[in-house]
Write a structure and sequence with these properties.
The complex is a heterodimer of chains A (127) and B (423). Chain A has five helices and no strands. By secondary structure, chain A is mostly helical. The longest helix of chain A is centred in the C-terminal third of the chain and has 17 residues. Chain B is built from twelve helices and 13 strands. In chain B, the strands form two sheets. Chain B has a ten-stranded mixed β-sheet with strand order 5-4-6-8-1-9-13-12-10-11, with helices on both faces. Chain B is globular and about 65 Å long. Classes of the chains: A mainly alpha (127), B alpha/beta (423). The interface between A and B is medium-sized, with 21 and 21 residues.
Chain lengths: 127, 423
């Protein structure tokens, strides 16, 4: 008789989901490009797509789907702190990094987020 | 205290239809929602049948993967906080508001409250905890709590619709949404709220349903046509279902003033507990018997005046027998022989959602003028001898209906609904 208890879930593990599965193929390609070559402009494309994907739709001005570098995430794009935390979680999960609250507090604009992710993720890549 | 409580809106996402018209047709024609079902890809699991909701895909823990009928517009800022059963609830809510002729602007002034019932999402909780544990709690989804725990329905729906009246959830397992409806009646009777929205919802997945298998509460009958057969001698457990039901009730003067279309009147409710077992019914249905008597007393009606009873009848051996004995005590012994049926023979058992779903069915029966039959009943349990358990839909319009619900720990809740004659 086995001594150990059976695993918590007898269910076969779900096949690993691609978090970008529902994103445009150009974004999935950019993600692959960054992973393969470290192309940070490709990384930028992914970050912008993730921002737009999490933007509260009700805050969007008539069909406007843009996130210029100068746009403030909360004041201009309508993010609340939870939606912002979701972006961070999504990127952490995608690139296996941990982003602290202190780091998060310093980010106000899309440009700052883009630059921060470049530094953080690129550093994680070379570490 | 004479405030009357009227049902003015219904919304259904169920195994037998995703709107009131489809549900009504399937109830009348006795078409069930059961199908062969693979819960978890493990052939060794003996549970083979379920009653799924159609036209939704919510079997992923990620909202990006979900789909639902295109006529419902769920903004992503709401979607991100929902559990799978929250998607059902959102759609049923939209339906019920449209049915009642209400918009979001009508329910934000504090006069409208929201009472919800679900078990929460074991599936989402498991997923989010497994994810958090995988980084030893260094990372986690910020929406993990609000999309998982019991209360997820009231958190999300109150925030989305801007509801500022009384908002809470009820947790009494399979009596939960019946409790929500009962206490909603009180909110209106006491003059605290003019309108209440009652929501019951559950999801159909391995995480919610299969933990009932070790209790021997689920049917292992592989035939979708007979797995759920309340009150039959061959019943062997319940069949799981998911979905959502929303009921909107209003104080009568408000409903009349705005010219609302009225389904039925809720004229009383009662509850009593078995005080007996954590999981199984009292063998003679003592708590249910008392709950029925209290509901009748509250409504000011006698057993002989009730035309139809929507039984809790989940198709478990112990529960159905206890209910049959309780029904004899209250009705047969008073010389009353109302039509009795359990619609779980058609829908399966919706757990927290069951009470509201079946109260919704009762409202349809009163407005459309029919009584419901006992699907799949062939050989009634000897305990049912003398109870009026027709197989088929009846064409006589009931004027008074009793709706029964029972939950774990022996919680029993009943409501009395009355036909409302529109002037």
């Amino acid at each position: 008789m086995p001594e150990e208890l059976p695993p918590l879930s007898p269910r076969p593990p779900l096949s690993p989901r691609n978090p970008l599965a529902k994103f445009p193929s150009s974004i999935r390609a950019a993600h692959e490009r960054f992973l393969a070559s470290g192309d940070v402009e490709a990384l930028d494309m992914v970050v912008i797509a993730v921002v737009l994907d999490h933007q509260p739709t009700q805050a969007r001005k008539s069909g406007e789907v843009v996130a210029p570098d100068t746009a403030r995430l909360m004041a201009d794009l309508g993010f609340d702190s939870l939606a912002l935390a979701e972006i961070v979680f999504f990127l952490e999960d995608l690139y296996k990094v941990t982003i602290t609250n202190e780091e998060l507090m310093k980010i106000t604009t899309v440009g700052e987020l883009r630059a921060f992710v470049r530094t953080k993720v690129a550093a994680g890549r070379t570490a | 205290m004479s405030r009357e409580v009227l049902i003015t809106g219904l919304g259904f996402i169920t195994s037998i239809g995703n709107d009131a018209a489809a549900v009504t047709a399937n109830l009348r024609e006795g078409r069930h929602g059961m199908t062969t079902w693979d819960y978890c890809g493990n052939p060794a699991v003996p549970v083979k049948v379920a009653a799924p909701v159609r036209d939704f895909t919510v079997d992923s823990p990620a909202w990006r993967d979900w789909s639902w009928p295109a006529r419902y517009d769920i903004p992503r800022e709401t979607l991100r906080g929902l559990a799978p059963h929250g998607v059902y609830a959102f759609c049923a809510m939209e339906q019920a508001l449209a049915d009642a002729g209400l918009t979001r602007a009508d329910i934000t002034d504090g006069g409208t409250g929201l009472f919800c019932a679900s078990a929460g999402s074991a599936f989402m909780l498991h997923h989010h905890l497994a994810h958090a544990r995988s980084s030893n709690f260094e990372r986690g989804n910020p929406m993990g709590v609000v999309s998982s725990i019991a209360g997820t329905l009231n958190f999300n729906l109150a925030a989305h619709y801007g509801i500022t009246g009384a908002v809470t959830g009820f947790v009494s397992a399979c009596a939960s949404s019946s409790h929500a409806l009962g206490y909603a009646i009180d909110e209106i009777r006491l003059g605290r709220q003019q309108r209440m929205i009652i929501v019951g919802a559950e999801e159909l997945n391995a995480d919610t349903l299969l933990p009932f298998a070790p209790m021997r509460a689920l049917s292992t009958n592989p035939d979708p046509a007979t797995a759920s057969r309340p009150f039959d001698t061959a019943r062997d457990g319940f069949v799981g279902t998911g979905g959502a039901t929303v009921i909107i009730v209003e104080e009568a003067s408000l409903a009349r003033k705005r010219g609302a279309s009225i389904y039925a009147e809720l004229i009383g409710w009662g509850q009593a507990s078995d005080g007996h077992s954590v999981a199984t019914s009292h063998p003679e249905g003592a708590g249910l018997r008392e709950a029925m008597r209290r509901a009748l007393r509250d409504a000011g009606v006698t057993p002989n005046e009730i035309n139809y009873i929507n039984a809790h009848g989940t198709s478990t051996p112990i529960g159905d027998r206890a209910e049959a004995i309780a029904l004899h005590s209250v009705f047969t012994s008073a010389g009353a022989h109302p039509v009795i049926s359990s619609t779980k023979g058609l829908t399966g058992h919706g757990l927290s959602m069951a009470g509201a779903m079946e109260a919704g069915f009762c409202a349809l029966a009163l407005r459309e003028g029919f009584t419901l039959g006992n699907a799949h009943l062939v050989n009634p349990d000897p305990a049912c001898e003398g109870l009026n358990l027709p197989r088929e839909t009846g064409s006589a319009r009931p004027s008074l209906i009793l709706n029964n619900s029972s939950g774990f720990g022996g919680s029993n809740v009943c409501q009395v609904l009355r036909f409302y004659k529109s002037s």
